[in-house]
Amino acid sequence: MSTGTNTRVVRETKETKVTVELARGSGVARVDTGLKFFDHMLSTFARYAGLDLTLHARGDLRHHLMEDVAITLGTAVQRVVPATAARYGERTVPMDDALVQACLDAGGRFYYRGPLKNRLYEHWMRSFCEHSRITLHLRVLRGRDSHHLTEAAFKALGLALRDAMVDSGVVFSMKGSVSLEVT
């Protein structure tokens, strides 16, 4: 976890280029990946999480683009979570036929358990959690429509993260502050 409140992360490979600017704020998003539904999901996530997001990405394949956006955005999110965050968040979101629950811990350890019906969005969630160092249990309680299930998942994730990022003023861990030094 970090004490920073905003960050800029750029990831560039032979396959993709992703630029993310992220700050805790009011949920204003400017997203351009060239994939309209994906842009909508990322904007929805930012709005519900209360994160101001500017994201531009281009890539050779949909899979590479979505994965690298997850890596870059996850890294940025990890950097804006306060060191004294409340850590835990849980939200259940209904959307038409869909009912999706997200339970998360923003305490610095990666774990993801789904699944979503869409394999690309399932992979996105796993990659995002790994790089944001979030534990996320995502449960599809009801629903068949992949669009509604995916959108409800991004909304639930955003709302749960919003709750987890509330600055509590204390470190929520029996270990206290954790320090890791790499030399």
TrEMBL record:
Coiled coil: none annotated. It comes from the Bacteria. Pathway: Amino-acid biosynthesis; L-histidine biosynthesis; L-histidine from 5-phospho-alpha-D-ribose 1-diphosphate: step 6/9. It catalyses: D-erythro-1-(imidazol-4-yl)glycerol 3-phosphate = 3-(imidazol-4-yl)-2-oxopropyl phosphate + H2O. Its main location: cytoplasm. Pfam families: IGPD. Its EC number is 4.2.1.19. InterPro entries: IGPD_sf, ImidazoleglycerolP_deHydtase, ImidazoleglycerP_deHydtase_CS, Ribosomal_Su5_D2-typ_SF. Keywords: Amino-acid biosynthesis, Cytoplasm, Histidine biosynthesis, Lyase. It is found in: Cytoplasm. PANTHER family: IMIDAZOLEGLYCEROL-PHOSPHATE DEHYDRATASE, IMIDAZOLEGLYCEROL-PHOSPHATE DEHYDRATASE HIS7. Belongs to the imidazoleglycerol-phosphate dehydratase family. This is Imidazoleglycerol-phosphate dehydratase. It comes from Corallococcus praedator. The gene is hisB.
